[in-house]
Amino acid sequence: MSAVNRTSTLVTSGALFFLLLPFLADYIGNPYLLSLFSRVLIYGLAAASLDLLVGYGGLVSLGHAAFVGIGAYVVAIMFHHGAEAEPLLGFISGSENGFIVWPLAVLAAAGAALLIGALSLRTSGMHFIMITLAFAQMAYYFSVSLEKYGGDDGISLYDRSVLGGLDLGNDISFYYVCFFLLSLFLILAYRLTRSRFGLILRGCGSNPRRIQALGIHSKRYRLVCFVIGGAGAGLAGALLANQTEYVSPALLHWTLSGELLVMVLLGGLGSLFGPVLGATVYLLLEETLAMYTEHWMVYFGPILILVVIFAKQGLFGLLTGAWKSDE
């Protein structure tokens, strides 16, 4: 079977698994699986958005958590002001309407990505990594200073967003909303990376000097990629705030950026679907190993090392046979 056929088979099998999981959870009488795999879908979305930057644009960022946190805080702050009937900044009404606050979360994260990207892309390599990390930490400490919204303790939501006639308080409905939004993002990102824009973006990641010699402004393409990735992370943050019904500064900490980067590397760089697989394996291993020890990372580390050594294109590349092209 060719690598293309294996990829199609793996993606289709994964989609069917996620579609049928609520029925499986009901059949075996384990509703916790819905909560766990809702988290998997959300982290898969955040990891896929990071893969756009790292796997296609060659932009290794340690500040991606900032966009996740911004998206989550927009939902939480709007919910808080809606519940308190207290306008934000004195004139903006709070809201629990997902059709309002979720796009706001995406726009806020995209706006932050535009600002951070415009400044960070003046550098490259290690300097780019450190600047994105610095911006993320600035956002983290800013969220800690927001005493009105809980400061270090974070802010709780008393319910999930309202999304038309859907009852997001129902775990099955919320799960399928997460699945739909992840699928939509992957489809749009896949088409984007297969377009002329995607080809130039890959060129920027692999050989930026040649792209520049062709008269193409690589920074503009990379900036657009950075903004799209930030928007995807903002949407993941909005979903995460609803899933946990709690938002804290931890969502903006650099350690979350590191976890997302591990998910991307574990699943496979430059594959989009690989990071979803990476998020699934990462969170399932965390859940399983944490049952036996609080120091689960000690056991997870060797697993990651083995994947990096023997599956250079991640688990997705190993399963699809894409690794053979590197031999």
Q: Outline of this structure?
A:
This protein is mostly helical. 72% of the residues lie in helices and 1% in strands. The mean pLDDT is 88.
What report would you give on this structure?
- With 327 residues, this protein is mainly alpha-helical.
- The chain has a single domain (3-326), classed as ABC transporter involved in vitamin B12 uptake, BtuC (Orthogonal Bundle).
- It has helices at residues 3-28, 32-56, 64-84, 98-120, 125-144, 171-193, 196-206, 208-213, 218-244, 254-267, 273-289, 297-310, 314-320; strands spanning 155-156, 246-247.
- The protein has a two-stranded antiparallel ribbon with strand order 1-2.
- Helix 2 (32-56) packs across helix 11 and helix 4 (98-120) runs antiparallel to helix 9.
- The protein is globular, with a radius of gyration of 20 Å.
The CATH C-level class name: Mainly Alpha
Q: How many structural domains in the coordinates?
A: 1
Sheet having the most strands: 2 strands, antiparallel
Query: What is the SS-derived class?
Result: mainly alpha
What's the count of strands? 2
Number of helices: 13
CATH architecture classification name: Orthogonal Bundle
What is the name of the CATH topology? Answer: ABC transporter involved in vitamin B12 uptake, BtuC
Order of secondary-structure elements: HHHHHEHHHHEHHHH
